[in-house]
Design goal:
mainly alpha; about 85% helix
Length: about 50
Amino acid sequence: MGIYQNMCYKVEDLMINVLSKKHNREIIKEKVTIYRVEKVKIAEKKRNIIKK
C-alpha cells in the first residue's frame, strides 16, 4: 500500500502544480498536507470500526 500511496501523492502533486501556477504554492502545499492528514485519520477510524 505504501508504494501505491506514494505514487498517488506524486500524481496529486503534479496536478496541483499544474492547476495552481498562479497561486501561492506554500499555502496550497499546506492545505494539501492538512487534507492528507485528515484523510488518513478518517481511514484509521474506519479501520477501527471494522475491527470491532
